[in-house]
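dude i think i finally got it to work??
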Amino acid sequence: MTAILTITDLKKTYDDGFKALKGVSLTIERGEILALLGPNGAGKTTLISTICGMVTPTSGTVTVDGHDTQADYRAARAMIGLVPQEIALQPFETVINTVRFSRGLFGKARNDAHIESVLRKLSLWDKKDTQITALSGGMKRRVLIAKALSHEPRILFLDEPTAGVDVALRKDMWDTVADLKADGVTIILTTHYIEEAEAIADRVGVITHGELLLVQDKETLMAQMGKKQIEVQLGEAIKAIPESLARFDVKLGEGGDSLVYTYDTHGERTGITGLLVALAEAGLVLRDVQTRQSSLEDIFVDLVDGEPA
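look at this
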């Protein structure tokens, strides 16, 4: 694969001294899906806005398929589609005219076949003559995606695309993203829905306080940083963990009828055997045992919580 987007030491400091971006460097491969995770105020939207040319960086460079976003703005921006967080649409315009207008803004010739294809993929074709004001919030967000795809971009930024969208529509959008990837579109997704990144991303980036903590293949990240938990269901509830179990990283579950033990899957010893022996010696009766792998959300929380404010 070859890089389609290269970000080098990108910094943004506002007039009040706030450092929104602190030297972000990132290379995004052609045709991949990158999920960018971070808490509110982490710098996600600032990064996207800078790449798209809506915010001028203090220093650093961004190139889109070889086009510098500052020196060759028009060529770079023509390759980018952006779906913003905010729903800003003309309320009394129809869906199809809204999407056609966006295509025209990029100087593209009219192409009704392409517009129809986009609307059909997003389940908007039967709403093409409907005014925006009559659409649900989820449908309006689909129109934003259709607008972003109207000029046939090769990179698509989705800034919290499924905020306020119900579960069924969210799943449909995931399928749409998969179809776009199959068509060779590179997708950068910011989201608060961790399961969204876990479901569709190839790589995951974690940003906080304007700094990129890591960018890594999703499966590799989970294998390297994931932990497992074993939950022991007890025959009877207890009020406190016996002192004989103090040497284990074990916590009392809600209701007192279970114990949760966290261990590193890559460690030489998991400690499970010793724990089970200690449980028996403490006179605790086991009713059931279950294991659980850490999710991407667990890993994300651990990374962000480990950073100084």
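The chain has ten helices and 14 strands.
im so relieved honestly
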